[in-house]
Amino acid sequence: MNAAVSAAENTGFDIDIELRRGDARSGFRRAFAIRSEHRVIAVVGDSGAGKTSLLHAIAGLLRPVRGRIVVAGETLFDRERRIDLPAHRRRIGYVFQDARLFPHLDVRANLLYGLRGAGARERRFELDAIVELLGIGHLLARGTAGLSGGEMQRVALGRALLSQPRILLLDEPLSMLDMNRRDELLPYLQRVREESGLPMIYVSHYPEEVRRIAEDVHRIG
Amino acid sequence: MNAAVSAAENTGFDIDIELRRGDARSGFRRAFAIRSEHRVIAVVGDSGAGKTSLLHAIAGLLRPVRGRIVVAGETLFDRERRIDLPAHRRRIGYVFQDARLFPHLDVRANLLYGLRGAGARERRFELDAIVELLGIGHLLARGTAGLSGGEMQRVALGRALLSQPRILLLDEPLSMLDMNRRDELLPYLQRVREESGLPMIYVSHYPEEVRRIAEDVHRIG
Amino acid sequence: MNEGFAGFSAAELTAIALSLKVAAAATVCSLPFGVAVGWLLARTRFPGKLLVDTLMYLPLVLPPVVTGYALLLGFSAQGPIGRVLSEHFGIVFAFRWTGAALASAIMGFPLMVRAIRLSIEAVDRRLEQAAATLGANPWRVFFGVTLPLAWPGLLAGAVLCFAKALGEFGATITFVSNIAGETQTLSSAIWGLMQTPGAESGVLRLALVAVALSFAAVFASEWLVQRQRAGTQR
Amino acid sequence: MNEGFAGFSAAELTAIALSLKVAAAATVCSLPFGVAVGWLLARTRFPGKLLVDTLMYLPLVLPPVVTGYALLLGFSAQGPIGRVLSEHFGIVFAFRWTGAALASAIMGFPLMVRAIRLSIEAVDRRLEQAAATLGANPWRVFFGVTLPLAWPGLLAGAVLCFAKALGEFGATITFVSNIAGETQTLSSAIWGLMQTPGAESGVLRLALVAVALSFAAVFASEWLVQRQRAGTQR
Amino acid sequence: APAQDKNTQPLTVFAAASLKESLDEAAAAYQQQTGQSVRASYAASSALARQIEQGAPADLFFSADLDWMDYLQQRRLLVDASRRNVLGNTLVLIAPKDSQAKPLALKPGTDLRPLLGEGRLALALTASVPAGKYARAALEKLGVWPQLQPRVAEGENVRAALMLVARGEAPLGVVYGSDAQAEPKVRVLATFPADTHAPIVYPVAVVKASRHPGAAAFAQWLRGKQAAAIFRRHGFAPLP
Ligand SMILES: Nc1ncnc2c1ncn2[C@@H]1O[C@H](COP(=O)(O)OP(=O)(O)OP(=O)(O)O)[C@@H](O)[C@H]1O
Ligand SMILES: Nc1ncnc2c1ncn2[C@@H]1O[C@H](COP(=O)(O)OP(=O)(O)OP(=O)(O)O)[C@@H](O)[C@H]1O
Ligand code: MOO
Ligand SMILES: [Mg+2]
Ligand SMILES: [Mg+2]
To answer: Is the pTM of this model over 0.95?
Structure first.
């Protein structure tokens, strides 16, 4: 890892970027400034405000036109210092708004995809435990094509956790789950938050959900 | 339209089907029986219970292995009487859980796709009004690729309404919308419910949403 | 022989023009069939499908002369198909440029169908379902959703067929001969020069023309694909 | 000549076996290049891309004899590339079956690349992004996500190349001649029979062999596609 | 007048590919002399014969091969009386221009292997193409075919064999005398004695289905003095 460690702050987020999508005239262009001491923050904002775009930038999938992204003391991106860690080296667990499961792999192989890359270092999440928690044991041998909306979301969440990330980005991870499942998962996410010590960004439209998980809420847009 | 009209009941739902997905051994198989005098009903149930499968069957996208589907007095499917109206003749406005926008068309053309098929008969929903209501005027000339999750959901809803359906099927249509937008759309859906007189099935995980829109709640699974 | 133009003899210019006509006709006329067969193979199951699939590859698998000979037997004035076509529809392939176009179309058909089929198979059926719920009948679904989404494959298939038609020679010369001004295409002319010792520079000159024509075709197809893509990514 | 088998002469059996070897070698050896070029054309932009794209179509656009002649100029014992290859790597193409395989591979290359490119273009890049966030480096993304998803195009490209290799004759015979047991493929044998009055039944017999071989190839590819598809739709 | 019309219609000659340069020249001369235009279709004799069988619009067939001419005649598709052997040719052993090989006399048992070295003997397909069939017959007659057979490289046609020698890919080749004369990059080492192979003959005949009044006249002219001069210049041996 050739990311420079900023001595100043070793937890929290220091994000100050400007994003652009589409062409200059009619496209989307917005600056984001999120500075927080907290380890787990929520990002809320209207539909189209740029929440997903922000997460993409942090994950290394969208290059900001200027600014920098520092998470937990590690500089992921800094335009001026010409730092731009490629996505696969950022070790970010990203639960996409659209699950993005691999259609050529079954559920088990989807879950294990990131595990293989992660190696044995700091294994925090184990397959059996995750499968149990998300209630997807009966799906393991299935392909992804017939999964229901909520099932896809759970597999995507499991896959992200199993890649043993150092940062978690969650883009409406529970939006398709029923209340029971949601009530089961939220405490687990709270436990992940406590025990893993991972920085997390949580995007959701539900104030109640946000309040239960995040220490700090940022509204954008 | 060659659908037989059952004299007995001219509003409400009379659904009694058995659905199967995947192979016989490990696949999904479940019977659904929904009988309701009400015009607007909600279907709730755990993730994977079969809510989406049920809507697919009503829309003509999934053929039940047995049973019948009667909505507002019209028999859409009856295994025994060998009635199986093809999907494009059921005139159903279906807002899919995964928006399914046409990637080769811009937003305006997506919205108009169903309108062209509907002809001029009973035009209940007009482009301008829908665009205004859903707040998607600035997106009309855009392609669908860059749309945010909530934007896609709104376009999908608009497209379904503009196809001038006789039945509305909504599969978590507001799950990706923020509270403000949701609070704006729910009253509109209530108004659609009142003024259009259309039968509606509403799938959602949010009890509060469901209570505001449906006259009758069916739990499945 | 008349005067030529830009260093090409009149006969060569005739061959070039003929090749263009033949390749364009072969591509345009086989496209509807290519789309139909591509769709059938991509989206339907029927008994004997594997056989149809294999037979389609025949023009690729057999030496072109054999295909040309089969066409000669079937479509000549005496041939069973040729006789019916000419008596009832006034369509004559034998020893006409139309025959060259037919031969090229047949030779290019496997390439065209493969590309179209691949693209149709890649179209997300959930979008076709969505179109159906919006009231589109199967035809509208096909022409409004499936085909536009398979556009890159359609263009690729057309370019492959066009290019093949430019280069096709064995089946053509066997079927409709190599008559100057009527069935002598660019490829036949190049082949003729290859039979002539010391004519390498002539071969090169005509080969460059073929390259230029195919460049135009590739360029046009890339442009058409880009245009559609740009339209959807605004 | 020795005894034959099943009505085929020993020479014919040799030609059939050789054709299989040549077609298999052409397909297997060109596949990595086909994938590389298909990926470059599908996923990158570079100056001169349109030119590369056009040049790839050359073997399709030119009569096969011209391609064979160009190969002869480049890869023969005297040719600049052929000399280097044989002196430094001991690889000889001239008058060898390897030359027949090279000619077939070149002739089939445009078909293979087109199919692979189409399939790679159809792969959803969002899945590649997801793989990257899961820690997969570009190589793992390519081999673990892109390539498996482009599987149908890969197989289609391989079958097209194999079929073309079976039918290829003009470039092969021009480049490596027709040497019994070394470069006389099924297609050369069929072509030879076509030159002989009254040998039509022999042509038909050998053509049926070619059809059977291509049937096997088509069948195998369909089976492989189905198998993958079944695996993902459980 | 209708006769005039017929005259302005071009005569169509289906001719063996190896006749291209000489026949193009002869046709031009004929048109200048008589006003009758001639167009040709050059391809393999086999393809042309099959096309004529299927009703091709050919007025004359000019074959490199007696077999295919016989094939059509047996099927009563030719005007028998019009059939003439127009040209003869020789069969020669060639080497690349800059080869060290010296001219030699071909006698029974002449061992060509030392001249071949590691290389191959280029000729046309011995099983099917006329030039190849003549070459094989000649080498068999000389008794050297068994030793040479494993060393031959058979081209699609005689011009392919010529090209291999001209390019130096093959140290020796067997082609027609006319081909050797047309290609400056090769040298003739020896001419096969006429008695080692059947006479090499290019026959011409009027196609029975032809309705062109000038067909017979052109067939006749091809055997005349003016045509003979042209063919001779291209290395053929016009037959009396
Ligand atoms: N290529 C583009 N051209 C123009 N605008 C674009 C383009 N791509 C994205 N946008 C716009 O950028 C805005 C931000 O999108 P983003 O997906 O980040 O929103 P979001 O906050 O996640 O919304 P939601 O809550 O609905 O998911 C949207 O309005 C979207 O339409
Ligand atoms: N081909 C298949 N083989 C086996 N099971 C399948 C297949 N297709 C769908 N299923 C299963 O059918 C069940 C019902 O799916 P459906 O999409 O109807 O659920 P849902 O109630 O809409 O769930 P959600 O709220 O998560 O969207 C799911 O458990 C799904 O995994
Ligand atoms: O002119 Mo030939 O037919 O190659 O001997
Ligand atoms: Mg979003
Ligand atoms: Mg669902």
So the answer is: no
